Description:
Blueprint: E1 39-43, E2 46-52, H1 54-57, E3 62-68, E4 73-78, E5 83-90, E6 92-97, E7 100-104, E8 109-112, E9 118-123, E10 128-135, H2 140-149, H3 157-166, E11 170-171
Helix pairs in contact: 2-3
Amino acid sequence: MADTHREQPGTEPGGQPGGQPGRGGVHREPVILAPGHGGRRHVPGSPYVVKLAGAQSGGSIAVLESTFEPGQGAPLHLHRGHDETFYVVSGAFRLRCDEHTTEAGPGAFLHVPRTHPHSFTAIGDTPATILVTLTPAGFEEFFIAAAALAADGRPDRQAMRTLLARHDQELVPDAPQDRR
């Protein structure tokens, strides 16, 4: 499939808006990407590909794709300003929302409304890929900033904590019986 990726002038997924206003004051264009294409960002533990940024959707939605090695993922956390939806593309994940945990393979779907603690971990013997949708958009900016912090290696913990707080991600301690 050839890239017929049309965007606002001078942007890539995860970039700033441009173009002329349309409905709702924001000019939006269709975006079509070939497999593996998008705005690549490497965050410690995993590369993220911004498939659709808020700047491209008028702030309504952002979509990210990421592949995790077994044992990697996101710790238990919550967001107060956006919902997250996960779709397992390949491999397997342990998905958790509130007190419910399930092991899920390709085609599995999890919608997490804001304020619900959730986590995910790649399981099995092979890398696993997940598609993440953020509504409204904005949290994709965390991955862009985290990648910049990690450009010279692993960022220091305090810088990462500050970044997490600035981008609406609150880490939630596990209850003692849930720790592994």
